[in-house]
Amino acid sequence: EIVMTQSPATLSVSPGERATLSCRASQSVSSNLAWYQQKPGQAPRLLIFGASTRATGIPARFSGSGSGTEFTLTISSLQSEDFAVYFCQQYNNWLPWTFGQGTKVEIK
Amino acid sequence: QVQLVESGGGLVKPGGSLRLSCAASGFTFSDYYMSWIRQAPGKGLEWVSYISSSGSTIYYADSVKGRFTISRDNAKNSLYLQMNSLRAEDTAVYYCARAPPPMDVWGQGTTVTVSS
Fold it and tell me: How much is the pLDDT for B59?
């Protein structure tokens, strides 16, 4: 099973600032990585797939990068609606598809 | 619009059973593989089970293998999860989602609580 490790666990950022979230895989997942956003009481929402492709309707301030074992989600200028928990997920290896433990982006 | 709606969650005693349902609308359900994913209180996401579009291919996470059964009825645009021999550690919000990854459509979730 591929283990996904996200850092930091919590990120305190002021509105308008940049947020950089990291995700590391225990072995290469190529570019088969997705990012999801989850707000309290809501289901996860797909943000990024293929490591860097924004899903339909996702604002350009969200960008993903990386390949292999190291990945980054960048939110260029945090808006109030962006404060949430973010999960990465690998889907390179056949089952099980595994998620990181999440990074909470909170208001500083 | 594209939508998934789960139902069937509730409070059940250890060793008990529950059947979750997921109703799909707004897309051709029979074209899509589907998955169940769960989230324990305050925890991350765990993939539980996957079923191919025809239902011929099924996989389970080791944590539920032999206890949970996934199925679908394409005529009813519905996905199911039969959960038997439930344990406290199965307590979670259960989501259905279009699969395989990336999971682009998720339901709102249904809560399962296993407690005596």
Answer: 93
